[in-house]
Amino acid sequence: MHEVVAAIAACGVSPIVRIPANEGWMVKRALDSGAHGVIVPLLRTADDAQKLVSAAKFPPQGVRGFGSPFPMGSFGNESAGEYLQQANASLLTIVQIETREALENVDAIAKVPGVDVLFVGPFDLGNNIGHPILEGNMHEELLTGIESIRKAANDNGKKTGFYATSGEQAQTYAEQGFQMISVAADMIAIPSFFTSTLAAARGQTEGGSKMTGPYGR
């Protein structure tokens, strides 16, 4: 993680680390490596969100320990003191809304101080509310839930994110007011590019398969 975060920051891009679970040691390890923020899956309640914020912030806002020699390098080699003074305000805390419980508690989660972005994971959210995305189609209840997440974030001064699987879908959600949107994943983009390039080399007409899952067919 440390090498990847440093390489991304050196390119002038903010490295954001998605950790596997809402565990304090995972939050600390990601931020201590120099990440500009963490994105955390499968939260369910405002208490879960508060636990995350506490792990991500230095005292008095949280309980994060200070002392890693690495994160300063991701901010232009600022001093340890400068990093300490600006970290609480600058680092992003991003919660994924992708469970039924989180959807039901979304307004309370959005009200938690220190939460910066509510990020929609549509595939897990669809599964958790009983309407999985099949053949790329979203159920009306899922679409309504996604809009309620955007509204809760907007009403509480937070940003919203969305896991899109194509440029076209990303544009759709950008036009709806979402601010942090994926455009493609490497597991989609790389095979898609080589499939279409190989088809062109063979003089074939590319059929183009429809997205049915978060990483392709």
The helix/strand order is HEHEHHEHHEHHEHEH
The percent range for helix content is 40-55%
Arithmetic mean of pLDDT:
92
* Strand-pairing-aware structural class: alpha/beta
The rounded distance between the terminal residues' Cα atoms is 28 Å
Beta-strand percent range? 5-15%
Low-confidence segments, ≥5 residues, pLDDT <50? none
Number of strands: 6
Number of helices: 10
Structure description:
The protein is of the alpha/beta class and 217 residues long. It is 45% helix and 11% strand. It contains ten helices and six strands. It has helices at residues 2-10, 24-32, 46-56, 80-90, 100-104, 106-110, 122-128, 140-155, 167-175, 186-201; strands at residues 16-18, 37-40, 92-97, 117-120, 159-162, 180-181. Strands 1-2-3-4-5-6 form a six-stranded parallel sheet. Helix 9 (167-175) links the parallel strand 5 (159-162) and strand 6 (180-181). Helix 2 packs parallel to helix 3. The longest helix has 16 residues, at 140-155. The chain is globular and about 60 Å long.
List the helices and strands and how they pair.
Layout: H1 2-10, E1 16-18, H2 24-32, E2 37-40, H3 46-56, H4 80-90, E3 92-97, H5 100-104, H6 106-110, E4 117-120, H7 122-128, H8 140-155, E5 159-162, H9 167-175, E6 180-181, H10 186-201
Helix pairs in contact: 2-3
